[in-house]
Design goal:
It is built from nine helices and five strands, in the order E-H-E-H-H-H-E-H-E-H-H-H-E-H. It is of the alpha/beta class. The chain has one domain: 3-Layer(aba) Sandwich (Rossmann fold). A five-stranded parallel β-sheet has the order 2-3-1-4-5, sandwiched between helices. The termini are close together. 33% of the residues are buried. The chain binds adenosine monophosphate (AMP). The site of adenosine monophosphate has 17 residues, from helix 2 and helix 3.
Length: 194
Amino acid sequence: MYNLILFGPPGSGKGTQAGILVEQHDFLHISTGDMFREELSRNTPLGKEARAYMDAGHLVPDEVTIAMLRKRVDEHPDVTGIIFDGFPRTDPQAAELNDLMREKDSQINALILLDVDADTVVQRILGRGATSGRADDLKEDVIRTRYENFLNYTSPVFDFYENLGLAHRVDGTQTPEQVAAAIDAIIGRRLQEA
Ligand code: AMP
């Protein structure tokens, strides 16, 4: 299995790049944000629990997020690879993902940070908010809270993978095509090393 973490602040292009990758490779795309939005739209107990956190731009608690992620991975035992988009977002989530991969005799092959500054994020997400239908895309203060939460809770996850020699950084302010080419080069390199 080839397992990749697409990493970066909100609005850094993780979803766009995941979409490009699943067209090229036979990978399963797991976006915890998409999963929560799906639960929200169906008004499930999980959706109801997640809503207040999401609307305020805060992270949903680890136990809830990890249980949901584990279930999704378990539902797809035969995939050739997984793209994790928006997970892990905290150190406990990263530790849990490590355990999960080990249980499956698998591993994370690479983490790719799409590096984008706060002002670019705000501009992009406000633009997307016009059509995304997402409550958390509409207000600048909520977007800035999401970016702050990325810096405070999520960015340490980069160091975890950097210490394992698996972390890569791509300039996420480039065009989607340029970012995709940079990701392609990293994946090709890592596949050769594997
Ligand atoms: P996203 O679509 O990845 O920007 O996620 C939207 C929202 O879902 C986030 O602002 C969080 O409230 C929640 N969320 C998504 N993934 C996670 C995660 N791994 N841990 C905690 N909360 C998450």
